[in-house]
Amino acid sequence: MNLQYMKMQILELGLLILAAYIGGILAKKLKIGAVIGQICGGILVGPHFLELLHTVLLKHPAWSQLVLFKPIYFFYKNGFSEYREILDGYHFFVFLFLGLIAFSIGEELHRDRLKQVGIKATIICMIQGLLTFFLIALGFRFIFKFSVINSLIIGSIGIATAPALTFILMSKLKITGRLKQLLANIVVLDDILEVVLFSIFLSIAMAQQSGHFVSGFHIAKEVILELLLATFIGFAIFIVLRFAIKERKPDEDEMGEEGSFLSTVLSQHPTPSVEILLIVLAIVAIGIAVAINFNLPFLITAVTAGFLISNLHNNAIFDSLKIENVMPIMNLFFFAIIGASVRLESFSADTIVFVLGYVALRSAGKIIGNWSGATLTGQDPKITAALPKLMLPQAGMAAVETILVASVLKTDGALIFNTIIPALVIFELGGAYLSERTLTKWKNVSLGEKEALEAKPESKEPAGLSGLIKDRIIEMMAITRQEALFELAQVMVKNRIITETADITNALLQREKLASTGIGRGIAIPHCRIPHIQKTTIACGVLKHPLDWNSPDDKPIEIMFLILTPEEHPQEHLKALSLIASVVKKQNFVSDFKEAVMAKDSGKCIQLLSLEEI
After folding, report:
1. Which one in 17, 141, 293, 550 has a CA-CA gap of 20 to 30 Å to 500?
2. For the segment 498-541, what is each residue's pLDDT rounded down to a tens digit?
3. Which one from 48, 110, 269, 527 is the annotated catalytic residue?
């Protein structure tokens, strides 16, 4: 064991974390976004900046005697080569984290959500993807006089969008809903389109370099094979996760006799936990490693696994990727490595025109294409304004493919590398800034902060529980749990609280599988958090046919309160529960309330739902 090398590893890890943390704090105070500060912190302690600084100091020998600069001279002579090598060793985390984020995108690809945005996302993706591709390819061919095949390769790389940064910011700001769903669909389709075109053009370039003729059929076969293999590995990840994370009924004995020893040891309930996070992280990491080993598009592998988990297993698994005490650390380390990896030396006078050209052409394609696609498909004006700015970040897949091009194309690979890598730095820094500003503004607008501040108080609205329920009280004919939840969800749809019953019924049914929401005394309180609502909303139903609900006192359910709370304010749920608990304690509440509902006596219902005794 090399103690000197290990010491340098620990030092670099500490410097990266500390610099990114301080940078994030300073950036927030300057109101330019914590992510920008974390990336800049990584840049300042990264080997590329230190080497650039050392080069400047060599031009001023007298500075070597200053106390401020002596450590830099000493460090460069005694440990710099190891420092640079260690950073290269940390790059595995970037690919792992990108894969984990790609897996989490699967949450947005549930079939119910795909029905809402699928075809529209496809239209937007094709418009912006092809426009970006043709603008870059034509620009480099006719303005910068690149060869046809090199122009096509650069154009195909330009399509790629870095989903990690944007989705990390969305997770950090707790943004969900239609914008995230639409963006997830576009990003996935974007990567598929980009991988297909890039694979085709790189195969042609390699064939030209070797002097061989490659038929279109051969290229198509290779691309399809790569996508199929990547999808197959994703399916394998899904199978293992389904084996390791099992849905079990609350009363089921976890250490039962059935199942193998391995199944008993690995099996976890999908309830959000650090244990689930560790299982997902480990299995996704292994799958990504296998995909990379066979030179397959590993992001497609991760997205496939997430898609299958979302549609064929349990969405609660994705909640473990949002654990607040763990993910911020991973986010910070990710951005610190991104910053430390910025190759400042790649900016040169010889290629700066190409770099700026690539930035301008790609920006134009992404902004105009996404705006046009969103307008054509009739998106909400807020989405039309936000979407183009969220599609600008580029790293990850584009960086990997650029490195691959530089490795396999001996003649032109270096030129393509020196053109795209500096541009990725600009897009990552500029994209992080724009994305954070855009998403912060989106959150503020979506929550209606301005409207809430300017709105006049409604003095006539009834207070307490009746104010949360209003006229959303119905008599229910359901004879199963699913029918009961569907009836109450329909009430929310009719009141325009949600757009479709599927928006909440799936979440409610999953919640009931974890533990019954029956609280005894013939009452159940199904509940969930959803985006796009600003305050807690309740619908109440009286069951004509009482239902078994696995309540603590084994009594069938006669009254149900469906509680929907804003995703951004989970504490509102507790307030609603407290109000309900206070009301249902009244003597004979169930029988009196049922009688009032059957008689359609709204005044009596309001009295019974108040906190005052009648």
Report:
1. 550
2. 877 776 877 787 677 656 788 888 899 888 877 777 788 899 99
3. 527
State pLDDT tens for residues 61-115.
777 677 777 777 777 777 777 888 888 788 788 778 877 877 877 776 677 666 6
**Which residues of the chain form CATH 3.40.930.10?**
464-609
Backbone angles phi, psi at 401, to 5 degrees: -70, -35
DSSP letter at 463? P
Give the separation between CA 431 and CA 438, rounded to whole angstroms: 10
What is the CATH superfamily name and number for domain 464-609? Mannitol-specific EII; Chain A (3.40.930.10)
557-566 and 523-524 beta bridge pairing: parallel
C-alpha 123/C-alpha 7 separation (Å) is 53
If we measure between CA atoms, which residue out of 530, 540, 515, 541 comes closest to residue 564? 530
Whole-number Å distance between alpha carbons of 182 and 377: 12
How many residues appear in the chain?
Answer: 614
Sole residue written with tokens 């300017």: 454
For the chain, residues classed under CATH 1.20.1530.20 are 86-248+257-449
Q: What is the dihedral of CA 48, 436, 274, 318, to 10 degrees?
A: -120
Contact 150, 412 (CB under 8 A): yes
- Write the DSSP symbol of residue 109: G
H helices, E strands: number in the chain: 26, 6
Q: Long-range contacts: 461-465, Cβ < 8 Å, 24+?
A: 462/606, 464/579, 464/609, 464/610, 464/611, 465/538, 465/576, 465/579, 465/580, 465/583, 465/609, 465/610, 465/611
Residue 490 in contact with residue 501, Cβ under 8 Å? yes
99 near 285, Cβ under 8 Å?
yes
Does this model's pTM top 0.90?
no
- CATH dotted code for 86-248+257-449: 1.20.1530.20
Active site residue 313: no
- The beta-carbon contacts of 267-275 under 8 Å, at least 24 apart in sequence, are 267/243, 268/244, 269/245, 269/514, 270/245, 270/246, 270/313, 270/314, 270/316, 270/317, 271/316, 271/514, 272/316, 272/319, 272/320, 272/322, 272/323, 273/320, 273/323, 274/320, 274/323, 274/326
CA angle 530, 374, 200 (to 5 degrees): 105
